Amino acid sequence: MISENSQSLRIVITGGSSGIGEAVSLEMAKDKHSFYLTGRNEQRLKEVCEKLTSMGCKAYYGVGDVSDEQAVNSMLEDIKSNLGGVDVVFANAGVGHFGNLEDLTIEQYDESFNVNVRGVFLWLNKTLPMLKSQNKGHLIVTSSNLGLKTGARCSLYAATKHAVQAMVWSLRDELKGTGVKAATINPGSVDTSWFDGKDVDRSKMLAVEDIAKAVRFIIDQDETSDIDHILLLPGKE
Fold first, then answer.
1. How far apart are CA 137 and CA 88, in angstroms?
2. Upper half-sphere CA count for residue 141 (Cβ side, 13 Å)
3. Domains and CATH numbers, the chain
4. Chain centroid to CA 71: how far?
5. pLDDT tens per residue, range 163-219
6. String of b and e for 205-216 (b: at least 16 CB within 10 Å)?
7. What does the alpha-carbon distance between residue 209 and residue 212 come to, in Å, rounded to a whole number?
8. Among residues of the chain, what percentage have pLDDT more than 70?
9. Which neighbouring-strand residues pair with 37?
10. Which one of 60, 111, 141, 170 has the minimum C-beta count within 10 Å?
11. Cβ-based burial of 45 (10 A; exposed 0-12, middle 13-18, buried ≥19)
């Protein structure tokens, strides 16, 4: 059901083919918004877009690496063509490599910082002028509880999320006096395909729907508030 205060929004979601990205799109589709999803799995993107269109939404997708500037530029042109602009950017794409620091590889380092940090920077950097020109909109980034603390075997992942946290907090200061808002979502372990094949108890993790509801809370907030971040921890730990 569409709330009385809602309006049709143009929502861009990176990492939208599954997991948190898909859950957020399906949650927000209840209000008949328009969507542009990005990812590297075209088949999965098509399937999610079909779900969104079946719910009465306009939905488009772009295939590409969030850390590839040329791919991002191409998708942004596609977004402008199909949606005419952007109201919400949910920078959600991410990777995770865990282990003792001496066991991690330079390839894992490069992928982690390219996707988790460079990818976020590119999407914020290139959509900010669009949002600021209309003096409204939301920039929401999937960080982590490890963007607020550290832990053993998390050095690389936590480093990328601390970088993202600093980026968004600095941006919030830059946005003061505008109608554009920036926030992070900081979940603990979430039951997604990240944990496929791993010996962990997924029944104690957050559900993707938990994150989707938190993202909705940020998007639907009134003009009188400016949410900084939302920390979500599993309720069964």
1. 6
2. 33
3. 10-232 (3.40.50.720)
4. 17
5. 999 999 999 999 999 999 999 999 998 877 665 666 676 677 899 999 999 999 999
6. bbebebbbebbe
7. 5
8. 93
9. 13, 61
10. 170
11. buried
